[in-house]
Amino acid sequence: MTGMLQRLRRLLSPSEQLEVEDLKQQCRNSGATPMGECRDRAKVRIRGTVRWVTKLDNGGMEVLLTDGTGSVELNWTGRRRLECIQPGTSLIVEGRISTNEGQKVIYNPDFEVVG
What we know:
By secondary structure, the protein is α+β, with helices and mostly antiparallel strands. The chain has two helices and six strands. A five-stranded mixed beta barrel has the order 1-2-3-5-4. Strand 2 and strand 3 form a beta hairpin. It is elongated, with a radius of gyration of 16 Å. The N and C termini lie far apart (31 Å). 18% of the residues are buried.
């Protein structure tokens, strides 16, 4: 009966809520730290989905990654484009997290595109 209730709840839930739940589950399954639990100056491994990509005036590239518990900006200095990173791409990222004007940021992170 629990399985039937779970399927019914998923059918009736808004798509945004289902996406958040799926992102949280993917994070747990990959052994990554939920973004909402990442602390300033900690070395982290996170997993999430790219929401947007933008080029910076200084020649860098910035990406917003989210996992349903929070978001982290990824900033590559000196990189105008990484062809494999586009909105909707799933990434596992490793690096040292910091906070800039209240937003969590990782500069020049190591990353892996995941399916």
